[in-house]
């Protein structure tokens, strides 16, 4: 343990803080480990000065909760700086050096259209324009032998042209660098001599896998966001230092794990999905605490709704998640997203059809009801008009809802549609729920699961507002809203483990003769994993998880299969084959016991467990539920009078019926008719839909 952290832990309080920055709010979840007290907070983001809201939040925590930053022994941070840089296309001007004759690599990609059924679909423009791609005479065979060394004169000309065209960095990606990275390394060294002011990333050092497009595009994403992410993290470290924080900042990663800020400045691509991933990790932890085995998560913020499956209490992982318009090929928590959030703007198109999203009002100016200058109707405004929202302060007292402004914004749409304002607001909500329904059905179909067996866990500021309505449409029987839904992503950072992913492509037939190669590769990766954890400051037990990407001979793509290191140690090739057949059967409903198998990649995850945290549990008691007041709500067909409950007055064992509204510091829970509500011993609010 670092000396400053040890001193902080011994002097009074021991604060562990998780922070997550979204499109509208930055969320804080602070745990005082000795007492078990949890403090949470939301602060509006400052897009013009990313990071300033962090200092504002720490100051408010100190003012309201007695939080002392000098006693902070753990600080975990998730940020959207990287992904926003890509979505907004505000990254660094880059050049690409690749093999001569392969200059069209990133434009050709995989020759697939994003939407094969759309006549108007087009592929996104590459992050590096064609005039900034330079072909270098060089060639490496697939077996790793060199047939033509890189032409350094061509490299010198390319670097000069890149500098003249304003490049800030260069990506080097050569054929078969996954097998032998020597050519990329020599060109990188040459660039460092020729233009030390330019940063350089090679494809093999970012993610050394077969398939040149995937390897190249991952390296390009890393370089594209590097300057902004590095500058942001440098400023973050400086700001924390001025506050006297002894803990060095840790960052949430796309794979649901953590890494330190120093690595984050180089391996920027690993944190592109940090916010969405940490939300799922936080939800997984809450699901395990509550004994929920199968959960569909619904994270609704200001700009999007994110969905993920938790099976057996664990998040699901995959590759190929979209970052804006571009696929990310490193391991990440599997999350599906759609541009429908609380700030999604509703409008009428040229054909007179009501649309919702994907454009969002964000935090500035925000929904009309925030009174911050927004004038266009949003999903949040529709909730206000229907009466579900606007009965208490929002975001820990930072926002007051102006119902008049919400009615004015929705009223303008209603006038254009020739419908009553309440019906128009309900139509906005119905469209938002239906668009989420379609996305969730896709997710369930891909995973091959029956959502009726799952519990919906809504979180984020907007999740509880719409979650119960979505669950009802999906035919789900249970909904579980955590005590503090608005800060689940920040909680995810608190409970996350250190996790590093490592990969090697070996590309060989699976046989007894290939097992020694697999075993040697695993041992090499295992040592890399241990070294990586040590560099992160982890000096406790290490968990190493082995898997391989395999396929039948003749297939174009492989599947990931979890393996036991014991099978390799024992030389049990049959156990490896049977594991592949079982996995293939689970995914595709068939397997071929006589089929030849190819092994493509060996993967290893090195995990260092985070702190063992727990929240206090309270025994359930039978207690009368007090109704704060009754209020009119438009429930879809008529105005009904429903009960309003204050979440802080609900105790374990409290029960009540829907329709109802539950208000709390960070969100509002809308509960439709037909739902039975109960508070459990973890202070989760559980809904059960009655037949």
UniProtKB/TrEMBL annotation:
Q: What is its EC number?
A: 3.5.2.14
Q: Which UniProt keywords apply?
A: Hydrolase
- The superkingdom listed in its UniProt entry is Bacteria
Example of a GO MF term: N-methylhydantoinase (ATP-hydrolyzing) activity
Output the lineage of the source organism: Bacteria, Pseudomonadati, Pseudomonadota, Alphaproteobacteria, Hyphomicrobiales
Q: What is this protein called?
A: N-methylhydantoinase A
- The answer, when asked if Hydrolase is one of the entry's keywords, is yes
Q: Which InterPro entries match?
A: ACX-like_C (IPR049517), Hydant_A_N (IPR008040), Hydantoinase_A (IPR002821), Oxoprolinase-like (IPR045079)
Boundaries of every Hydantoinase/oxoprolinase N-terminal domain copy? 16-192
- The transmembrane segments are none
Provide the Acetophenone carboxylase-like C-terminal domain boundaries.
516-682
Where do the Hydantoinase A/oxoprolinase domain residues begin and end? 215-499
